[in-house]
Design brief:
Number of strands: 8
Number of domains: 2
Largest sheet: 4 strands, antiparallel
Radius of gyration: 16 Å
Length: 171
């Protein structure tokens, strides 16, 4: 599998087992410390440089980061509504990154955002949209908030709560 972080190696192993055998792997018995904590996790897949799937959890729902990665890797490869499920013949063309999120921090001023450093969560009632930080083509705060609102189907004139978070991105 090459010299990937334990996060990405686990995600790719989970995807391969699920796509080829329909099997969900168990987390390793000996977890590195960074996989033992609880945190929200996003798994992003690319095929030949183009997005192929991205699913995650804003807040943890699994007992640890390793289980969160396994669940979200399978979802990113098979349940992202924007894409058909990954086929076995695509596996060798996929690259993966794993973002481990810090806890969301409420903010009341857009100037506290920085699209290269912070992700954003927008919330209006039950609708919530998230955009990860440091994405290609997202260079301004306005772009970042607009895209997050569009994902949540929040209109620009609706009242919304804003949160920012940081990520550790693993390749």
């Amino acid at each position: 599998m090459g010299d990937f972080s334990p996060h990405v190696s686990l995600a790719m192993e989970a995807i391969r087992a699920y796509v080829t055998e329909g099997r969900m792997i168990d987390p390793p018995n000996e977890l590195p410390a960074e996989l033992q904590d609880q945190a929200g996790v996003f798994v992003s897949l690319k095929k030949l440089g183009d997005l192929r799937g991205c699913i995650g959890t804003i807040e943890p729902i699994q007992p640890n980061v390793a289980c969160e990665i396994i669940q979200n890797a399978i979802s990113a490869s098979t349940r992202d509504p924007r894409f058909l499920p990954v086929e076995p013949d695509e596996l060798d063309h996929l690259t993966c990154s794993v973002d481990v999120l810090s806890g969301p921090e409420p903010i009341d001023d857009l100037r506290l955002l920085d699209p290269k450093k912070y992700g954003v969560i927008v919330e209006c009632g039950m609708r919530r949209g998230l955009l990860l930080p440091n994405l290609d083509g997202v260079d301004t705060i306005d772009d970042q908030v607009y895209i997050a609102c569009r994902k949540a189907m929040i209109q620009p004139d609706e009242p919304m709560k804003l949160y920012r978070f940081e990520v550790k991105r693993y390749f």
